[in-house]
Design brief:
The chain is an alpha/beta fold. The radius of gyration is 22 Å and the shape is globular. Helix content is 28%, strand content 26%.
Length: 367
Amino acid sequence: MKSKWHFWIDRGGTFTDIIGKTPEGKLLTLKLLSDNAEQYPDAAVEGIRRLLKLNREDPIPAHAIACVKMGTTVATNALLERKGEPTVLVITQGFADALRIGYQNRPKIFALHIELPSVLYSSVIEAKERMSAQGEVVMELDASDLKHQLKLAYSQGLRSVAITFLHSYRYPQHEMMARDIARELGFWQISVSHECSPLMKMISRGDTTVADAYLSPVLHQYTAQVAQALPGVEVYFMQSSGGLAKPRAFHGKDAILSGPAGGIVGMARTAVGAGYSKVIGFDMGGTSTDVSHYAGEFERQPECMVAGVLIRAPMLSIHTVAAGGGSIVYYDGQRLRVGPESAGANPGPACYRRGGHATITDANVLL
């Protein structure tokens, strides 16, 4: 393994950073725009090609690469900017608004105008079914009715479905039946709550399942693209928990903090190597800003709120704000606002001279 190349990549919403370690142990670095269709199809793969000094038509030599490990904000940015896959939520009859109502938290108790975060699903199907908390079948799943409603959703162009039934964390048979119906109809992203979050509390379980269905298609499209461009190469992706996963095992709910998690691990290792045991991390990218701290051990949390969505999956303790260098600055009729929309890498901030919007970067250039 020491006689091969190693690559570590941070694929952000605006820039992609590539570190390559040569067989001789020398470290090389490269920074590319994450989206630059005129120059290359994918920044991560292009970075590998450039560090290996390959021509455009040369195949990537898999035998010369030990592994590629990558953190990506693809899922994070899709969630912050609400650019995931349109999803239909299938939930127990009578609970259509359960996820919309949520826990009725009031983070700003004196606010007269309460702005609820937008839900991720596009439509809701109420399945005629009911299981008791003890596992008794109160109402059998009406398979024909569910099939009819899913057909309508499919005809409307929806291809992603999130299935959350009451008490299914322990008694999942109705969810499994609904999953089989959706698969038969051709839905290619099916997330079921007893697999995504097999624990009590329907709201957080449902939110996590919807997030997985909403983000996984976008994520899998990217990971498949990278894996296809690197045939025969061992590719791993950073999860929100700080661990690594193969492309097929990398799901939307586990990728919310993929990029920031790599930053925390790197920050901690660097700090310890320099003799510091307590550090605060501030990671401002193009689309988002991540704040964290390390005091001798990695702090993990079982669930967290990201962009108004409650995700219940193990992840490093990171606070993410939709304000990065590429966050768009606009006037809403009363005051200047920033984000959550980002100019990204293409067209990028106005100062890139590609027709982009004014952003934080442009404000910095002007100042």
